Each structure stands twice: as structure tokens, then as C-alpha cells.
Model the fold of this input.
Amino acid sequence: MAHGKRQRNNYRRRLESKTDYHRRLRLLKSGLPRAVVRVSNTQITCQLTNYSKEGDKVVTSMTGADLQKHGYPNDASKKSVPASYLTGFALGKKAVSNGINEAVLDIGLSTASSGSRVFGALKGMIDAGLEIPHGEGVLPSDERINGEHISDSLSKVLDKTKKSIEGAFK
Done:
């Protein structure tokens, strides 16, 4: 515990390793909606959120499980790079259809490694029409997005799922 006059307690969510408040403040100062991407043990979650004093408000949300409605296989991973791309693509199409055209990426405490699932979701949002500041070097390759590293049959399913998402959010 902090006891001296020069010491102070850290915020609870910082101690629990849940929030980086310096990064969060920089994102909030932009004034744009945040494209929040989180990867859990079973699926990926993408949300567009706006700041409010009472707490962040989720404008729209998509998860890896929502891809099944668009023809994505039930037995396929809901957190792979192709699933991340499709989830980001669906969120981007939904956001553009709701009149949101730009956002800023919020990856939380995830490590920002090039080609990761978080950046796969970012590429999906960009391909859907959202304007998000990024560097081209962090995006995964087209082979990984198409699922060629997983199986050959997955790339056909991805095209079909992507067309279904485009038809759903016009």
C-alpha cells in the first residue's frame, strides 16, 4: 500500500491489469467512436463505443458467434484470423449503414503484434468502409485472411459469408 505523502494508490482496474488509463485517455481525446476489439478464449468481440460520463455506450456490436447467421461453419473457430476479419467486416458494414464512417482502434491490453487477430478485425472494418488510422505493415497477409493456412475449403466459405454480410447491411 502507498503510505508516504509522495505516493498514491493505483486505480483498481490498473492493478487488476484490465485498463491502461494513459492509452484510454489518448483514445478518448480524439473524440471519435472507439472500435473495441477483444479476443476471448472462445471468440472475438468487436464493438463501436462512445464515451459518456455515466459509462461507455455501445453503439453496435458483433461477435464471432454472430457469423453463424451468415453461413459461417459451426465447427470452425470463432477467433481465428479469418473469423476476426469477418467479424470486423460485419461490424464495419453495420456501422456504415448506421451512419458512422470513422473510428479509432482500441485493442486494450492486447499486444500489438503485426498480423494478429486484432489487426485482422481492423482490416475487415477498413474493407467495409470505416476510416480508421493505421499503418499498412500491421495488417495480416491475404493468405491468412482467406484461411489458406487453416484449410483450402475455408476460403470458399469465407467468400460466401462475406457476400451474405454485404447483403444484410446495405
Remarks:
- The radius of gyration is 17 Å.
- Residues 81-97 form the longest helix (17 residues).
